[in-house]
Amino acid sequence: MLKDQVTFRRVAAGTLLIVAPLLQALAVLVDPGTWGDDREAVSFADNPALAQVQSVLYHWSWLLMAVAVLGLVHLTRLRATRLGHVAGALTVVGYISASGLLLTDPVEWWLGRRYAPAEAQRILDEMLGLPGVMWGFQLPWMFFAFLGLPVLTVAVWRAGFFGWWVPAVVTVGYLGSFAVPYGPATAALWIAPVAGLGWAGLRILRMGDAAWAAFYPSAVREPVAAARS
Predict the structure, then answer these.
(1) E strand or H helix at 173
(2) pTM exceeding 0.85
(3) What is the DSSP-derived secondary structure letter of residue 47?
């Protein structure tokens, strides 16, 4: 499979669209801050083991989603191409940036062990408020993930690959989470996109190599078909 560009990319895209959002849903479920104190300096200190697990799950979820997005962009080669390119690029940048910020989690745990919650938060805010940290790692890049992915699913829907309900579920799940405090409501909202993105991944796995290759321009498609004959 590693020698076959069509099979490898199709299977990788389909698998990651199932796995990446599932890891994010698991991360929010095991995060001590979801069910306990919303101040991470406190909740992480209450259960440092789960705090590390959720950080690892978020990290790999967002890194893998950045790769999975390339599979969705592939589905816009023939229709909604401009929208797919712009939304896809922004989404990739967003997920990679969000993953990098997870290194603040052990810092919050360390501060929470040594300072009162208010002081721990003050120190962290001062660190994250540095111009290089804020504009180089946080704003606006990290928001591109949850803003860009719904737009990208709209592009794939316009390309005719899946029904309207997929971008609807992804939009409600991820954009809706901005309207509620991080907690049980976030968990419910982030579980919803697992169904939509998982369905997209399953469709990709089931579509077969010929259907995947059909999205390539004919100049690419014909040599691939000749190599398989």
Answers:
(1) helix 165-176
(2) yes
(3) -
DSSP codes joined into one string, 55-103: HHHHHHHHHHHHHHHHHHHHTTSSSSHHHHHHHHHHHHHHHHHHHHGGG
132 token code pair? 């290089």
Provide DSSP, 122-142.
Answer: HHHHHHHTSHHHIIIIITTGG
Residues composing the chain = 229
Helix (H) or strand (E) holding 148: helix 144-158
Tens-digit pLDDT profile for residues 25-68: 999 999 999 998 878 888 888 888 999 999 999 999 999 999 99
* Count of C-beta atoms within a 10 Å radius of residue 161: 21
Domain ranges of the chain: 5-228
Helix (H/G/I), strand (E/B), else coil: 104? helix
Per-residue pLDDT of 68-88, as tens digits, reads: 999 999 999 999 999 999 999
